[in-house]
Structures are given as C-alpha cells and as structure tokens.
UniProtKB/TrEMBL annotation:
Residues 9-66 form the HTH lysR-type domain. It holds the Pfam family LysR_substrate. Belongs to the LysR transcriptional regulatory family. Keywords: DNA-binding, Transcription, Transcription regulation. It comes from Vibrio ouci. The lineage of its organism: Bacteria, Pseudomonadati, Pseudomonadota, Gammaproteobacteria, Vibrionales. This is LysR family transcriptional regulator. GO terms for molecular function: DNA binding; DNA-binding transcription factor activity.
Length: 309
C-alpha cells in the first residue's frame, strides 16, 4: 500500500488501526476508543476490506499484525501528523483543549519525584488529557518510533535508532545514599575500598543505568566488586531496602527530594574515576516541529531543571 492509498482511509479508521497496533486486543481498543467491542470488530472488518489484508491474526487473546499491517503501522505516525496539520490550519496547540493521551517513558533511576512533578504540571496545563507516565523498558525505543510513546527521559547519550532524536538537558550530580546509622558517614571522603565494604541497592532497567555502570566500572578497575542485594525498577523498593538494611543506593540530584528524613547523602565527587552521564530527552525525529511536541518538550525540560537547580 502506498502513502497516497493510506491517506485515503478515513481518520477514524487510521486511529482504530493505530490503537489496535498498540493494544493488540479489540477489548482494550474498545475501552480506549469508548466503543463497544462489536463496534471495533465491525470497523476492523471494514478496514480489512479497504486494504485487502487481514491486518491482524488472532493468537489466543492477542492480535498479531500481518507483515502488511506492520508496514502500515510504521507509516502511521507521519500520516497522522500530516492529517493533524491539515485539520489544524493555524498549526498551533492549546494544552487546555487537548483531550488525547500524553505518554512519557522515564528511566526508573530518574522517575521519583520527576513523575509526580510532571503529572502536576501536565495536569494543570492539560486537564482534559489522559497522562501515562511509565518506566523505560526495552521496547520504549520501538514505541517512540511508532508514536505510541510521545517522549522518553533517560541518560544521555543512548545507543538508539537514527529515527530517534536525543537532546541533552541536564548534568545532575550523583551521590551515594544510606541510612543515618551507617558508620561510613563518619568518613568525609570515602575511598572505593571504603565504599565497597557495603552491599549495594540498584534501581535498574537493562542497559539504561549509565551512572551505575560507570560507578561499577570504577570498582572493577580498582579490583573491587561490591555485593548487590537488590535490583529493582521500583525506586520505592530501593529506598525502603536502604532504610532497613545497611547498604548503599546510587542516586542522582533529581532523586534527592524523594528521600526520607532518616537517609543521608554521601558525596562521591572526589572519586576521579567516576564520570556520570547527563540526562536527555528522546523523541521521534518526525515530531520535532510539531507544536504539541514542542510544548511537551518544554514542560519536561522545565521540570528536570527545577530538580537540578
């Protein structure tokens, strides 16, 4: 199917295809579109006839896209953006009138209190929108390219597709965090040897925690391998573990406001081998000029800078 053929399909059918591609379920698609499940099935039948392809093959409770459907889904973000510009001749975005979804994926190590701050700011500006703030996962890059996720927040730079643009936003400081009773606090400038006497708690998503990788590289170079007692993508679990067990948690400047009163910060800036990563925003290159994405980008930048100033 050519781009022209795809553009000839009505907007509602394109939206249906996009939602089905994201949800892989007529039931969940019907819930997002506020339609009956039979209504979604009927519309899908019509769409199949239009493109002369089954589009999705049912396997158990899931819909698996056909090869042709995958090609269509890859083209949809650009087509939907073109239609948005066609129907919005002023090419402006008014947050207070936005009724769609706002979806952001955030590295777990950066999520608290950034998620709460983002929700507050986005809800204030766009009260009619549905806001989804989700941890960065291994499929976040794919969802950014497909337009399923509007924007990602992660360490900078990442090794991602050229279809994704990355913008460096901030250079937060990094610290170790521990309970106020930990003896290590009596040492104003602990060495790597001092630090690795204690077990570590890690907030971790696969391949995306650069500041932790860099610190552990420094440990390896010093021939010190600390014991890891917890790995979790839930920052609350990591904080609670650090409060209960004598251990160290690697945090960044953006996370400091989330710490409880019984936790303390250990400065590690004197350890020359550690060079923490920056924080950046990731977007599909197709969205760079969109007024909606420019607005969302600025909201995120303001929130991040509020936490690192």
């Amino acid at each position: 199917m050519t781009n022209n053929e795809l553009e000839n399909i009505d907007f509602n059918s394109l939206k249906l295809l996009k939602i089905l591609g994201e949800e892989r379920s007529t039931k969940r698609a019907s819930e997002r579109l506020y339609l009956t499940q039979s209504g979604v099935s009927k519309s899908l039948k019509k769409l199949r006839a239009q493109v002369n392809d089954p589009l999705f093959i049912r396997e158990g409770n899931f819909l698996i896209p056909t090869e042709k459907c995958d090609r269509l889904l890859a083209k949809l973000p650009a087509i939907m953006e073109a239609l948005d510009e066609l129907y919005n001749k002023s090419n402006t975005f008014i947050p207070s009138e936005h009724t769609g979804d706002i979806t952001i994926h955030i590295n777990a190590a950066l999520s608290r209190p950034l998620m709460s701050l983002l929700f507050t700011k986005l809800n204030e500006a766009a009260p009619k929108a549905t806001i989804t703030l989700h941890s960065w996962t291994t499929d976040s890059e794919y969802k950014l390219k497909q337009g399923i996720v509007d924007l990602g927040i992660n360490f900078y730079p990442l090794d991602v597709s050229k279809e994704i643009t990355q913008t460096q936003i901030a250079n937060p400081k990094y610290f170790l965090c521990c309970h106020e009773s930990l003896p290590l606090l009596s040492n104003p400038k602990p060495s790597i040897n001092d630090i690795t006497q204690y077990p570590f708690v890690l907030t971790q998503m696969p391949d995306f925690n650069r500041e932790q990788n860099l610190l552990f590289n420094a440990f390896s170079e010093a021939d010190r391998a600390p014991r890891i007692i917890v790995r979790s993508d839930k920052i609350d679990v990591c904080i609670d573990t650090t409060r209960q067990i004598p251990s160290l948690l690697i945090i960044n400047q953006m996370t400091k406001p989330a710490l409880t009163d019984d936790l303390r910060i250990i400065d590690i800036s004197h350890i020359d081998e550690i060079h923490p990563s920056s924080v950046g925003i990731l977007r599909s290159y197709r969205t760079v000029e969109s007024p909606y994405y420019q607005w969302l980008n600025q909201v995120v930048i303001d929130c991040i800078k509020q936490l690192v100033r």
